[in-house]
Amino acid sequence: MAATTAQPPSPLPPAGEVIEVENSEPGSPDVGSRSSGSGRSSSEYSGWVYHLGVNSIGHEYCHLRFLVIRGKCVAMYKRDPHDNPGLEPIRKGFVSHTLVVEEVGRKKVNHGDVYVLRLYSRLDQTKKGEIACATPGEAQKWTEAFEQAKQQAEYDLTRGANWNRLQSENEFNLDGHRRRVRRGLGKLVRIGKGPEMLLRQSSDLQSHERVNTNFGGDTGDALEAHEWRFVRTLNGIRIFEDIANSKGGKGILLKSIGVVGANPDTVFEMVLSRDKHKRHEWDMLISDLELVETIDGYCDVVYGTYEPKYLNWWKSKKDFVFSRQWFRGQDGAYNILQSPASHKQKPPRHGYERTHINPTTWEIKRLNTSESTPKCIVTRMVEISPCFWDRWRRRTSSNFERSIPFALLSQVAGLREYFAANPAITPDLPSTVVKSKVSESLIIQSELEYSEPNDEFYDALVRGESFEGDSDDDDNDDDDDDAGKVKLKNVSWAIAGLAMKRTKASLERSELVTNSIPIAIDSSHFHGTVRQAKSEDDPNSWSSPGGEKFMIRGKTYLTDYAKIAGGDPLLKLIAVDWFKVNERFDSVALHPKSLVQSEAAKKIPFILVVNLQVPAKPNYNLVMYYAAEKPVNKDSLLGRFIDGTDAFRDARFKLIPSIVEGYWMVKRAVGTRACLLGKAVTCNYLRQDNFLEIDVDIGSSSVARSIIGLVLGYVTSIVVDLAILVEAKEEKELPEYILGTVRLNRVNPEAAVPI
């Protein structure tokens, strides 16, 4: 394979270029090898990673390695094989269809922080190992690379290729014995021993199959109840107040928004950094930080001190303890939640007054720009006391400028100026990228879901604002009248023009068998453990809202990213179960007491069972049952999803969450972005008789476990809407439609029924 690559790694690598090459899938993972193989084109992913493990005497190691994934073949080298022709890999093997890639999160290694991926086989736990990356963005790209290799293996199985014993024995294993290569002492090279090498060498893995970096704005796929009003400018940063009468909040919500000249990964690292020399350059409040405890890869507790030299509102030295939780979305955006905390290792300190840092969040999203310099939008949200804010607004005094909330909101301005003065902090690091002609069915195309052109800073679709018809869409071929059109106003993902949504009748014509007699479905014949709501305020209940508050792909999405308001769900929600179990509960539909096994359910043409497995003590199962009045058309998108492969289902099953009422930090953690569940967590599928069950193992993802742990702490005060759908990726499948919805009103964990 002929390829031009960037220079070899160095502790502080120079800016490099992205190279695209086309190649055919080889029969072995060695770079440059040739084989007849399958003859199909495939992607190559390559870059620098850190191989973590424990040696034979029990010592942990972290080695810098060059990893190459081509098709379903993987090879690991000590040096870049593109710069060293003939170099033999130290490990190589195949990715199997049983591979599981888990994002472990942030981990401290050699006095530095890396982001760890754990790889293992579902069938053989001895084949396991860990690699780490410099940023969570790279970790997600490697996850997608391994996922595509896994899809290649699954595709080969569907084509009749056997996963024979030879391939099983040669399955890629990071933890097993590797072949040693004898060299003279003069040729031994120590790699990855110092923190400068560990922290600054970046793989910068990229795939340009479907790349559109038009991220930006406070975007979502469900309408939120915030109503932001601009109140003033501080240091060139806009300050907004949430004036909506949202329930579940504990104070007034403010946010500052600014454009920072760096990529989201770099800004995220700077926000989490405890390096006081760097923080002193942009943070006037919490610049001195000490790690108290690491809870997991996505949560820690820190301690800080502050001497009131600049905020003379304070009279004595201050210290504080707060927890930090962080998440990276599938769109590459970061959310960081900070809450006041207490810790037994940090009792009150003599000479310091213990204070509480206001509950705050960071949101860091890539900004669409035609410039070569990366930029992102940074949003800082702060909750403050209503009485304090009202006094400041009435008297317009200067007290606010000497308060903790002011210092927190000013951090955005500090970051902006810091990166403006240090442009070399975010270089384009070297990488090798190979462009592929692999089948569309194997490409992970979720990037399109999050690549919507926009330069807005915030959502402005607020409660009480209606969608309006518009007659300017002359290019739409649909003959429906203006009542069926949707106008997207002042929304970060909005585009000029309109898109048509399917009516319920046209949807049934395409997805269900039209010449069959519909079955009358009476929900009173089905009784779940959660009762159907009698009113909006009925606690521990469910209802089925319409889909108009969820934004889904329109007819022209593949060309202009236009989204439309969802219509009525195709399937009818007939019951909801809320179970508690000691261990994970799969195959709920096969349980003898399941409503799917009832005589009434057996008369229904098709039932979709969605089993959300919630990790806790005890574990919970939230099970939703959706029914179709007619048989499903086998050739429709839904029909192909029902009877398709697990890989196809994983790439298409999508959920949109929306916290309607609840504490604002929970809303920010959950978000309103559509999520491909098969990509985020492990989904298992059971297709039998007249039903398909989807078991969603939320505990299979460290990120999902962290978020659900936060949600469970407020679940009795939360109203949440969920929409499920099958993602449309081809023009003939558009526009999308909503399969089903559910509203869960203040569910009580104590009301869960033991199984």
UniProtKB/TrEMBL annotation:
Provide GO CC annotations from the record.
nucleus
Q: Which SUPFAM superfamilies match?
A: Bet v1-like, PH domain-like
Please give the InterPro entries that the UniProt record associates with this protein.
Answer: EDR2-like (IPR045096), EDR2_C (IPR009769), PH_domain (IPR001849), START-like_dom_sf (IPR023393), START_lipid-bd_dom (IPR002913)
Molecular function, one GO term: lipid binding
One of this protein's Pfam families, by short name? EDR2_C
Domain annotation START: ranges? 228-392
Q: Just give the chief location class.
A: nucleus
Question: Could you tell me which residues belong to the region Disordered?
Answer: 1-40
Q: What is this protein called?
A: START domain-containing protein
Compositional bias per record (Low complexity), positions renumbered to this chain: 27-40
- State the compartments where it is located: Nucleus
Q: Which residues form the signal peptide?
A: none
